[in-house]
Amino acid sequence: MGLLLAAVSSLHISVLVLLFAATLDKVWWVLPDGQSVSLWYHCVALQHNALRCRE
């Protein structure tokens, strides 16, 4: 019974790690109008390489 609990727990932890890694991969999007959107910040492109970000 303990082995089953350990297996299910490790499966859940590995799924959480994979979901977190997938979230980090898709954390940043650039919209067609030049604005950038992320999961944690809202950024607006000011000029060529300058960004203004807020949480």
Number of helices: 1
Q: Helix share of residues?
A: 40-55%
- What structural category characterises the helix and strand content? alpha+beta
Report on the biggest sheet. Answer: 4 strands, antiparallel
Shape, per Cα inertia axes: rod-shaped
What is the number of E strands?
4
Brief summary of the model shown:
The protein has 55 residues and is α+β, with helices and mostly antiparallel strands. Helices cover 44% and strands 25% of the residues. It is found in: Membrane.
Task: Write the topology of this structure.
Layout: H1 2-25, E1 28-30, E2 36-38, E3 42-45, E4 51-54
Antiparallel strand pairs: 1-2, 2-3, 3-4
Task: Give a description of the structure.
This protein has 55 residues and is an alpha+beta fold. It has one domain (2-54). It is built from one helix and four strands. The protein has a four-stranded antiparallel sheet with strand order 1-2-3-4, with no helix packed on it. The longest helix is centred in the N-terminal third of the chain and has 24 residues, at 2-25. It starts with a helix and ends with a strand. The mean pLDDT is 80.
